[in-house]
Amino acid sequence: MNITRSKELFTEAQKYIPGGVNSPVRAFKSVGGDPLFIERGEAAHMYDTDGNAYIDYIGSWGPHLFGHNPTFIMEALYKAMENGTSFGAPTEMEVKMAKLITELVPSVERVRMVNSGTEATMSAIRAARGHTGKEKFIKFEGCYHGHADYFLIKAGSGALTLGVPTSPGVTKGNAADTLLADFNDIESVKKVVAANKGEVAAIIIEPIAGNMGVIPATNEFLTQLRQICDEEGIVLIFDEVMTGFRVAAGGAQEVLGITPDLSTFGKIIGGGLPVGAFGGKREIMETIAPVGPVYQAGTLSGNPLAMSAGYAALKYIQDNPQVYTDLEEKSKFLNDGLADNLKQLGKNYYMTRIGSMSCMFFTEEEVTDFQSAVKSDTALYGRYFNEMLKRGVYLAPAQFEAMFVSTAHTRSDLEHTIKAHYEALKAII
Ligand code: KE4
Does the 4-69+321-428 domain belong in CATH 3.40.30.10? Predict the structure, then answer.
């Protein structure tokens, strides 16, 4: 496979950009090799700067529910551009977008647009702290909520599971209010809540985790989590940046049947442009300026281009509910094919799938949380990734991510992927 131009660009990029990329996971560090520089996307395919074609299962890390450049999004964008790019003043499209989100996700009574998932989650934590007057919050090992300082924390030692920074630059002060519990382990939550009685403002969780591979929280766990939050006056935040509008029009909260107090969104709601949002109960959201005292702002929040693309995406979902039947059929066909391959090869790698997000872990043990996920053989995943790339299939360049199917993936794309998966595994095991 000729990747000369990508290599040239990567060398050049590293002169100006840390690691040559604008987001670390793109650097292929955990799978080896150099990143491919992509020239264009079209439907379920991407083409690199050397003209190599790939079936794309990253979908820009989730936004492309309809594949690249769907006509209805591109037309909305072109139309919006004719009027200008940004005004720093309210527009009708922001009203339409907010209304549509409240229609699709009933738990959202008020919503504020921001420019990334990170902004959404950090703002939701601030709203919860402002609303409750409490300072600590609980997150779960293996869940990723963006790169705000107080999220870059891992379990420290001790029963209180006090957080310790995972990254230089994150201060102990910032870590002090972040508490860690174990995903799908309600006893670990009870222990942390009891050890911090009356001090916990919020519990934030990916209801279907997509950043330690794909691992759903069990309904029982979420039900008990909801109960603890009700009893303790804790704000329950569902981080649906990845799952929102991905697994259902109403997100994971619709699929799992649990209602959070606040939800955060990103990815799909931008139609491929930078957008995040946080929203939920009116009484909590109205702590946010200018109604309430909790400050939150953004120059390009709700900008017309991102709103037009995002609105087109969500309106399409509202008007075409069969999108999710189509995604389910395609995703099931693909997953069944991959599972068949494993059977033929005598391999029992653990697979998870919720709708059009899935993961194959290179471990034969059940994966239900971070501790079991990290047993996966990441080196083997790296070899698998590169074998698939050679066969024109572009997966996430890291084991602990999700594989996304879009409505643009055709039957022949899926059949090609199943065949490549068989050959790739045969080549490495
Ligand atoms: P952004 O700030 O990257 O828009 O969103 C942060 C975020 C928050 N919450 C969840 C559940 C997320 O999955 C993310 C971002 N996801 C990663 C992919 N695992 C983005 C990819 C990247 O960092 O380049």
Answer: no
